[in-house]
Model the fold of this input.
Amino acid sequence: MVKSGVVLAVEGFEGTDKCLERGGELAGRDGGALAVKVAREKHDLRFDIPCLGPQTLERCTTARISVLAFEAGKSLLLEQEICETLAKKNKISVLTIAENSSP
Done:
């Protein structure tokens, strides 16, 4: 998670929800942080696929996160319609990012 160019939190063993909570606290009362969910380098997607869904959007709402980005082609967005409704209702921009594969 990032706000104003400062890294607030990096997901560790505790998982996405705890990272969002911690980053939200560090972002301050006004919130406005950016959360990015990507697969690790050389991540084996056969056994562990990064996922986000309604619970993720609820955590973002609680943490006052303004942007949630996730990696296209390497992440699953669960219950897309519910996520869209939550994002609109709570004014959270949700977008995908792609790895730049050009040399």
Summary: The chain is about 30% helix and 25% strand.
